[in-house]
Amino acid sequence: MAAVASSTGGPTSAEEQEALKALTFQRLHPKTYLERFLAENVRPDGREFDEWRDISVNVGSISTADGSALVKLGSTTVVCGVKAEIAEPELDKPKEGFLVPNLDLPAICSPKFKPGPPTDEAQVLSDRLNDVLISSGVVSLASLCIEPGKAAWVLYVDATCINYDGNAFDATLLAMVAALKNTRLPRARFDEDRQRTICSRTIREPLTLGRLPTSFSFGIFDGTHVLADPTSFEEPLLDTSVSVVIDDEGGLVSVMQLGLGVVGVGEGEGEDVLTACIDAARECWAKTRNVVYGPRES
């Protein structure tokens, strides 16, 4: 009976106790916890400094949307749907349509987000995503015009993070571009006599796409360590983050830096770090990301 009692009701194993101590230390002293890992040239999740998490892209899973995509970057999961409506073009841009991206970070995706109106982080990320999509020309706004000054397509590109484990910007940009690539719109024409737009019920056509941007984000910890694809644990501890956006030909679209703006301790080291991030982004694009969207439509 004593043996049975010790096996079922005894103290936890030594391994469980050590795991509990490590978890407690991680929550109470996160910066020291990360520093100890980095001192051994490894990150808490076992990756090297320049190692990226696995990525997967699935498209067309939302039947009620005009285009959709589901992206997983490690444990970070983002779903995106494109919904098209018809509106009048702006007066100063009568031959262009509209592209309206938005990212939602609901409370269900992470304990760090609370119920209520959109967080500041979601609004900042939405603005950054809009800047990249417009500057890269991923969709020709002129191609969204049905009749100059009369009718144009409005594409609402709505993304929702359903599980947050860091680097939502990279994952969301992938989801938005993949969803736009999957989008099919009904063939439309403007009827002058009835002053209304007529849409085909049978013919649906893909969007006219330009460059397909992909983002590669890095975190700078303690001014010296450059961490690729930071997790939700690492992000709050970073001094600076750098996002390098590469198009589908390997060309540089933009470089965005957020944070203190102080990288390295010597003259010129900040520029060297940015150059290293751009080189690392291009290398990752060449090895893996250049195929994530699949082949272009003919």
From TrEMBL:
GO BP of this protein? exonucleolytic trimming to generate mature 3'-end of 5.8S rRNA from tricistronic rRNA transcript (SSU-rRNA, 5.8S rRNA, LSU-rRNA); nuclear mRNA surveillance; nuclear polyadenylation-dependent rRNA catabolic process; rRNA catabolic process; TRAMP-dependent tRNA surveillance pathway; U1 snRNA 3'-end processing; U4 snRNA 3'-end processing; U5 snRNA 3'-end processing
One Gene Ontology cellular component: cytoplasmic exosome (RNase complex)
Keywords, A to Z, come to: Cytoplasm, Exosome, Nucleus, RNA-binding, rRNA processing
Decide whether keyword RNA-binding is in the record: yes
Q: Indicate the transmembrane segments per the record.
A: none
**Limits of the Exoribonuclease phosphorolytic domain:** 51-186, 213-282
Query: Which Pfam families does this one have?
Result: RNase_PH (PF01138), RNase_PH_C (PF03725)
The keyword Membrane appears for this protein: no
- Record's subcellular location: Cytoplasm; Nucleus, Nucleolus
Q: Which GO terms describe its molecular function?
A: mRNA 3'-UTR AU-rich region binding
Similarity section:
Belongs to the RNase PH family.
Q: What protein am I looking at?
A: Ribosomal RNA-processing protein 43
Query: Which organism is this entry from?
Result: Ganoderma sinense ZZ0214-1
